[in-house]
Structure formats: structure tokens, C-alpha cells
Amino acid sequence: MSLSRRGLLAGSVAAVGAAAVAASIGAPSAAHAASADGLVRRALRFRDDGTFRIVQFNDTQDTHTTDERTIALQEAVLDDADADFALINGDVITGGMTTELQVKQALNNVVLPMESRGILWAVTFGNHDEDSVPQTGMDESRMLAFLRQYEHNVNAGDADITGTANQVLTIRSSANGKEAFALWLLDSGRYAPSEIAGQDFAGYPTWDWLRFDQVDWYWRTSQALEKRAGGLVPGLVFQHIALWQHRFMWFASVDGRTDDDHARAVAKHGIVGERHEDECPGPFDSGMFNAMLHRGDIKGLFVGHDHVNTYVGNYYGIELGYGPGTGFGPYGLGGADTHRLRGARVFTLDENADGVYTGSRALFASDYGIDLTNERRPSEPAPFPSYVR
């Protein structure tokens, strides 16, 4: 199998260059509009007091009969957090559906909690979102087109790089309307190819990874934002699959895997939260962490994918962390504790604070008295809004 993932490097922003990116950033645009490089301006704005709240859901991952507790959890967190923006960060749905309608219903179920509240929202894609494509024909590009019908969705048309729904959303200052913060949404892919150069991946993780053109797009677009703003625009990155650096941080080591290594990591990196499974990155280090470290604008990179990991820490000046798995459909801890870590992560921004990003906290279903028993509780598909087909 070739290395290509949806045309690896096809149409890379590298061919355009930072000057062209900067030009598109400077062009006027309508609300919620996106340029061809995946930049969305004028969609998000800090409140008058300079604050902004983000909710990260992860792995809602269910069919058209979404477990009703997943939706109850989303609604409770959104109301509690008083969110300005919400993200479902990959594995929005799962496999097992047989029709296009069922896929649309599955998506509709988990975006309605934001849509019905008038909260701006977006999705990234994960490894399971296309599991039903052979039966339904609903690939990520068609899902994206469907989701963009919703009035409060701010997914862009897509940056012209590997993957689907790569984009950056800027948050405008309440004082002067300039870009004051950036939310980078990346498609970390699905699965590694069966082989490269005649070599398979036996013994290696077989998930996907950010490709070079995606990292290059971040690099160049970050520079363009800085040029326009007259200084670095701080930001957060959201993608579904973890970086290798998540694992390195947990043990403060590349090779060590002992309790003593982790104890040293807690002291060194300020780690809080739980880890119940090995991180599942792709077989290669994408270079994204090195790019972020060199640019100096990213305050944190947050993932899902590993449903029973909830930790966050500071890894050489950049927070690396997990949003707890939100969905009650996929695997959990097992036994009586299966659903104990179902939750979400809430981020707070303050444009008057140094660095703007002021931290995050994990919220759990148990905080809201949601039933954690193991028996599945499927729901009927919710009606579509009148403006969605």
C-alpha cells in the first residue's frame, strides 16, 4: 500500500508559501467564512469581560441510537460551563450503521446539545468516524458537508492538506476585534497503511499520525497570524490521536516505564489525572511537538482516543492532555467502574491574563448524578432541525 492518506502532500500549503497565507488572512470575510487555507475568522469573540470558555467532548462514538446518558452528560456540562464554544474531538460516531440516514441521525444526536443552545461548535474526525462507509457511503467529506448545514457549526470547508476538517479558528479581542487567540483543529487520521516500502507495522502502533504537510500548514499559518497581529497569537491544538510526547511526559522518559519514573514525572511535569491504558499514537513521531515548541505560540495540545486516560501535564512549557471519553457507548474501565471516567474538559481563556489561557478542568458524569450502571440505554434518533437535510 502507498504512503498516501487522502493524497499525501497534495496541494500542500508549502507550495503557496507564507506570503499567500498571510494575504488570505488579511482579506475581508463574512462571519463564519473560511479561506482556502482553513482559517476561520470572525466566528468567535471574547466576551465583553475578556473571558471565553471552551468545552471539549471526546469519543461520543455511538450509532443512531446514542446512549441517552451521553446526551445528558453533554447537556449538563454545557449548562454548567456556560460554554462559548464546544468541540467533539474525534470519533463523533462509530460503525454498525447501514444507511446514510442512520449516520446523519448519529451525528445529529450529539451535535444538537450545542445547536439547540445556540453554542458555536465544530468537530474533528477520529479513526472510527468512517467505519460505516462501506455500507452507507458517508465518508468524512460528506459528513462535513452535512454538518455545515447547522446554523451554529463553524467547521471550515477544509485546509488544502492531508485529512478532513483541518482548520484554525481565531477568537477576536473584545477590545479591538483583532485575533487574540487561536484554536487549531487537526485531523490525526485513522490507521497506518498496511506497509511502507515493503515493510509492515508488526510490533508498532498501527494508528495514524499527522503528516508533514499538516505540520507545515500549522507552521506557516502560525507565522502569518503573528505577522498580522504584530506578535505571537497564543492557541490550543485539538486532535484525536495522542502524540508520542504524551507517553514520554507520563514517565518523564523515552525508555523508562516504572512507578519511580512516573513519580519523577509528576513532580517534573505537574501531572494530574488518571492513565489506565497505554497511549495509542501512530508509529512515527510527526514532529508536531517540535514545531510547536519552536514557534512558541501553542499553550496546549489535547486529545481523546484513549477513553480511560484523563491526565494533563506541562511538558516543557506546553500542556499535553486528554479530554475524558464522553460517550457511554464505547469501551470504558470495565466492570462496575466501566463508566466512572465518562466526562469532558472545560478550558478557560482570559485575554487580560498573561498568555490568555488560564487552565482547564475535567468534569465527569458522576458530578451530575448521571447513571453509571453498565446496562446500555439507547435513545430514539432526535428530529433534525428544520434547516438540516
SSE layout and pairings?
Layout: H1 18-26, E1 39-45, E2 51-57, H2 68-81, E3 85-89, H3 100-115, E4 120-124, H4 133-136, H5 140-147, E5 167-172, E6 179-185, E7 195-196, E8 199-200, H6 212-229, E9 235-238, H7 244-251, H8 259-269, H9 288-295, E10 298-303, E11 312-315, E12 318-322, E13 343-350, E14 357-364
Parallel strand pairs: 1-5, 2-3, 3-4, 6-9, 9-10, 10-12
Antiparallel strand pairs: 2-13, 5-6, 7-8, 11-12, 13-14
Brief descriptors of the model:
389 residues, alpha/beta, 7-stranded mixed sheet, 20% strand, disordered N terminus
Brief summary of the model shown:
With 389 residues, this protein is of the alpha/beta class. It contains nine helices and 14 strands.
Care to describe what's here?
The chain is α/β, with parallel strands linked by helices and 389 residues long. The protein is 25% helix and 20% strand. It has a 7-stranded mixed beta sheet with strand order 1-5-6-9-10-12-11. β5 and β6 (179-185) form a beta hairpin. α2 (68-81) runs parallel beside α3 (100-115). The chain is globular and about 50 Å long. The two termini are 36 Å apart. The model is unreliable at 1-34 (pLDDT under 50).
